[in-house]
Specification:
4-stranded antiparallel sheet; 11% strand; Arc Repressor Mutant, subunit A; alpha+beta
């Protein structure tokens, strides 16, 4: 690794930028955890998961399937909430037509509405 950095010193800057981005993201997550209601935290987390692990739904154009298999308990731990509360919020968002819960995972049906939820609660 050090040999590669010596051969390509421009990688130092790229690595520093990457670490700075990660730190900013982490601080943002901590701030959200302490200030936002669960509904907004969940919406933001779903948008982040869609950006990182999303792909176009093969059967429904305009929808995004989150490819990461994440149990509700794990999602609750990420959000600092109980599984029951996360389940309630997911069901509410599903009734509103924002997401769909499938056996294979979550599907974002309306990204604009999800973004509005995240912003409205902030």
């Amino acid at each position: 690794f050090e040999r590669i950095l010596k051969l390509h010193p421009e990688l130092y800057e790229a690595l520093i930028k990457l670490q700075a981005r990660r730190v900013r993201l982490l601080f943002g997550m901590v701030e959200d955890l302490n200030t936002l209601p669960l509904r907004a935290r969940l919406a933001k987390q779903l948008m982040l998961l869609a950006r990182s692990y999303g792909s176009a739904h093969p059967q429904y154009p305009g929808e995004t399937r989150i490819q990461l298999q994440l149990a509700q308990e794990e999602l609750a731990q990420l959000l600092g909430a109980s599984r029951q509360r996360v389940n309630q919020e997911l069901k509410t968002m599903e009734r509103e037509g924002v997401i769909r819960v499938e056996p294979s995972g979550l599907v974002l049906r309306d990204a604009r509405a999800l973004s509005s939820i995240a912003d409205a609660e902030a």
